[in-house]
Amino acid sequence: MIRFYNSRPLAFNFNRHSGVELKNTVYKRVQRQGCTRATDSFPMIARALASEAALLCFDELQITDIADTLVLTLLFKELFV
Hints:
The chain is 56% helix and 12% strand.
């Protein structure tokens, strides 16, 4: 992943997240959205992440908590639809 990320063309905007950074970013954005249900904010968060970069690199993604599974499932569902 590091070699791929470092060899990218500089003309494009790329973001690289470790699994922990990604989860923390998503949790912070969910709190900032202030939606009555957390699941309502995932379309907005996915659009924001997608608009910030042409390519997202997820490095060392490890899921050990059921809450993280739900959060990342909802996020990836929105990102890849």
